[in-house]
Write a structure and sequence with these properties.
This protein is of the alpha/beta class. The chain folds into two domains: about 45-215 and about 285-415, SGNH hydrolase (Rossmann fold), CATH 3.40.50; about 220-275, no CATH class. Helices cover about 40% and strands about 15% of the residues. It contains 16 helices and eleven strands. It has helices at about 1-30, 100-105, 115-125, 140-150, 170-175, 175-180, 235, 240-255, 255-265, 270-275, 295-320, 330-335, 335-345, 360-370, 380-385, 400-415; strands spanning about 45, 50-55, 60, 70-75, 95-100, 130-135, 160-165, 190-195, 195-200, 320-325, 375. Strands 6-5-7-10-11 form a five-stranded parallel beta sheet, sandwiched between helices. Strands 1-2 form a two-stranded antiparallel sheet. The chain is globular and about 85 Å long. The relative contact order is 0.13. The model is unreliable at about 215-220 (pLDDT under 50).
Amino acid sequence: MARKLLIPLIFILFGVLLAFGLLEAAVRITGKTPPAGEPAFFWQDDERFGWFHAPGAEGYYFNPPGEYNAYAKVNSAGLIDQEYALEKPKGVYRILVLGDSFAEGLRVPMDATFHSILEEELNAAGKRVEVINAGVAGWGTDQELLFYREIGRKYKPDMVLLAFFPGNDIMNNAIALESKNFGGVKKPFFLLEDGELVLHNQPVGSEAGLGSETGASESGQQLIPEHPPLAFLLPLLQRSAFYRYFIPRLRVIAPGFALKLAQWGLIEPGSETRNARQGPDYIPLAYGVYKTPLDEPWQEGWRITEALLAEMKKEVEADGATLRVVVIPAQLQVEPAVWRHIMQAFPAMQATQWDLDQPNAMLAAILQRQDTPYLDLLPVFRAWNGPTLFFPIDGHWNQRGHRLAGESLFDWLNPDIPKTDH
């Protein structure tokens, strides 16, 4: 009897190993093996802004699924761009781009970012233009304003192009939300006091009483055993290209199954474990910008944002430049399947009303009141009829997304930028 059972088990084991071997070979042969090790790190603490790029930092930036692996280098001024002299060359029209990780552009080659494409196309159209990238991951409009005051205006830009991402810029600008998201106060911030913007915590750490904040409360459930039964296999599995390719995707597609694998010790605990620890009522903080009606902390975030945009416009125009805004669309706004997946992953969201166009409409109303020209890329991206413009797991633009944004900006800005004699 034992022998009769043993033979089928051997065949099953052989089939599993064969399938795994074929998948391993396929991932390696097709060049989809995710990079090993850690990606380059480009940031350092900065008492003026909270964090900023470390001059001279360079290397390849990638994510665990291997969706991208792009080289970047920080110039001597702390910008992820080529070197630019502070003194603007005669006859050159200069555009300074402010923004967060979408502007920073680490996920694509430096010459494939939207601002590089914009610069290339403007110069090909007979203009003499420099487009300087001052984007920094995680920054809000408050840090971008402080950067402009401290460094940006020294470049004497003719135009400041603010890349505004409603998906998290409102949260970044409201310290009550930002500190909850970050787990503490790690940056300078503005508050509205008697209707006026008042800067706090600069230099960073200068104000007492700004301790750590807690994020969403955890249920307290011990989800992962102290000694998972199959954890001894993990070092071997992590050497597999297929494993490193497949597991990050599994965490997105089937978080419940990924949680089981983490409990067995076959994968490191990740996002699926963190989310499960929050309990069944958990809704990620960042999605609050799409909730209707908005909760009070988000309404305050919008009030501060409107004041920051007004102050940015006032200071840019006082320097003799113009302010324009490009509105960055989120993947969940463009691809309906992404929003459906989010609603399934966090069932508590199904009892709330959401409006994915709400932040863009609110921002448009502010910019119209302030008479600030803007280009909302959301309709442009929704009208796209080709392959995805985003890295599916990471959620930032891929090279197609950057090219579409750069070409759209060229069409918008080109008529208003004068030709110069070479």
